[in-house]
Write a structure and sequence with these properties.
It is a single chain. This protein is about 30% helix and about 20% strand. The chain is of the alpha+beta class. The strands form three sheets. It has a six-stranded antiparallel β-sheet, with helices on one face. Strands 1-6 form a two-stranded antiparallel ribbon. Strands 9-10 form a two-stranded antiparallel sheet.
């Protein structure tokens, strides 16, 4: 059934922010990087959890159900393809065991936007509220990343098994029957 004209628009998703918007691209082209970003010491006011690839981190935030406008500081590094979530100081290590996660704590530095959205290497997807500092829940983020990874594995396995059911594909090698392997066996 089609949504009615009076139905509210769905809330924005994190994965919709996979690519920089036009404002950020414009700022990146016409501003000096030193005027839009600065290095900040981690581990004092917050730790940072960096997730690669960016799309995986955004998917985890969607799985978490965190509203885009919740005020939790979230950055995109479009150059490195990372998502960075600021968490309470001393808590980032709780996610250190998750593959593809890098924890920035005491002794580390992070490039932060200081004007506008920032730059391609540090762009706010959700800027912090200076009046009410709020941080991401590192335990919930960790669980969402693990769930996202499990969902991706499930989808990959379903795709693989669907491919094996196609006529002309050998189950032991997952290649077309009669084709030669790429490396010697």
């Amino acid at each position: 059934m089609a949504p009615s004209a009076n139905s509210p628009a769905p809330p924005p998703s994190w994965t919709a922010r996979l690519h920089p918007d036009e404002v950020l691209v414009h700022e990146a082209r016409y501003s000096l990087p030193s005027s839009t970003t600065e290095l900040a010491a981690c581990g004092l006011e917050w730790d940072a959890v960096a997730v690669t690839p960016l799309e995986r981190g955004l998917s985890a935030l969607d799985v978490l159900g965190l509203p885009v406008d919740a005020g939790v500081p979230v950055l995109a590094d479009y150059v490195r393809g990372e998502l960075v979530v600021l968490v309470a100081p001393g808590t980032g290590g709780a996610a250190a065991d998750v593959p593809g996660v890098r924890v920035l704590a005491a002794g580390a530095w992070l490039l932060l936007p200081v004007r506008g959205q920032g730059a391609m290497a540090a762009a706010w997807l959700s800027a912090p509220d200076p009046q009410r500092p709020k941080y991401g829940d590192v335990t919930a983020l960790r669980e969402a990343l693990l769930r996202t990874d499990a969902d991706r594995v499930d989808r990959s396995e379903r795709t693989f098994h669907a491919m094996l059911r196609r006529p002309g594909v050998e189950a032991s090698t997952a290649r077309p029957v009669g084709s030669r392997p790429l490396v010697g066996t």
